[in-house]
Amino acid sequence: MSESAGRIIAERSQREAGGKCWWWLTGDTYPHRDLLKRHGARFSSRRRAWYWNGETLPAAIQALVGEPEALSPAPVLPPALEQQILAVLAEDDARRTPALPVEPMPDIPAEESPERPSIRVSKPASPPSDGALDAVQHAIRAVKREPPMAPSAPPVSTGRLARIDQAFCGEITGSITGQVFCYGYSIHDGIAVYINLAGPRMAVEAIRAKLSKGEHVTVVPPDSPSVELTAGEGSTGMYHAYLHYLPEARFASLILVHAWAVAPNYGGKATTFIVRISDAQAAAKLAHHVTQLVNVPVFEAWSAYLYDAGQRAMLVRKTRAAGGIDLLTVDLDVDAWTRLITGGLEQGVIELPQQTT
Questions:
Q1: 220-270: per-residue pLDDT in tens?
Q2: Residue 252 and residue 244: Cα distance in Å, rounded?
């Protein structure tokens, strides 16, 4: 039986004669949601409709619906045709995902809320009693034998800037007009991740444009073979530029930093870089990267351990560089860093900080 009043439709459902019945309330129910909830109606997030369990609707809800509509009786089908239709429907249902139940389940909350994720315990693998250790296990044992010392802090600075060393490396060439000089570069696996250059502005911009298009330029040192600088064949727009222009001298100073260093990819086994001003600063920056990478807590007290053990496991290593720049390569290997943390806890090299009340 159905009741309608323009805005809300009430449909009575009953699985079998004499059994429990309930009402589906559809239509423009949103303005009346507080009233429906107050009088015992519940909302089904699966069917996206309100329902009320009982034989008769409360008077307050009945006032929102109209008089029963006269329904024309369903035509009676011949038994053979009805059996054929049921067989076809059963075959279709077997091929599809089972339909959602029409009857509301009283044991299931009406308003579904996402379940809280369960806590996953990462159990470390104990080092083998015999046999060769891998790089992570070797690093944990080495740090256990020789506990790391806290990195020395740099001189206290009142500003937010730190000085990066630079020195003349040679002239940059690459089919440009004007002399451009290089004051530092760093290369990882053939990719230039840091370039410090200066010269006439138009020539500097020409170098920047060539590198942004994935082309290469060459540094010609005064006393050693030339070095090719490139973002990689086909790699475009990979550099973040830090430009300082002196208009009086028409001179520009430009530092190009690869996107791997500026915006690390923590979603896979990627690589990033740290400009090391001091060991304390590098350890703090490394701890930040590891915190973003792994799915376990990382505490500030572990910074020295991560810095030391990461270098022993070759997850942190010095990058090829010239011109005074000190750049570290960091492997963003989530499995290796997680093992380094859980193994350190298992071996007692690091421990969870005690809570103070």
A1: 999 889 999 998 877 888 999 999 988 887 899 999 999 999 999 998 789
A2: 6
- How many whole angstroms from its chain centre is CA 267? 6
- pTM listed for this prediction: 0.61
Q: Please give, one letter per residue, the 3-state secondary structure of the chain.
A: CEEECCCEEEEEEECCCCCCEEEEEEECCHHHHHHHHHCCCEEECCCCEEEEECCCCCHHHHCCCCCECCCCCCCCCCHHHHHHHHHHHHHHHHHCCCCCCCCCCCCCCCCCCCCCCCCCCCCCCCCCCCCCCCHHHHHHHHHHHCCCCCCCCCCCCCCCCCCCCCCCCEEEECCCCCCEEEEEEEEECCEEEEEEEEEEHHHHHHHHHHHHCCCEEEEECCCCCCEEEECCCCCCCCEEEEEEEECCCCEEEEEEEEHHHHCCCCCCCEEEEEECCCHHHHHHHHHHHHHHHCCCCCCHHHHHHHHHHHHHCCCEEECEEECCCCEEEEEECHHHHHHHHHHHHHCCCCCCCCCCC
Residues in the chain: 357
The residue type at 154: P
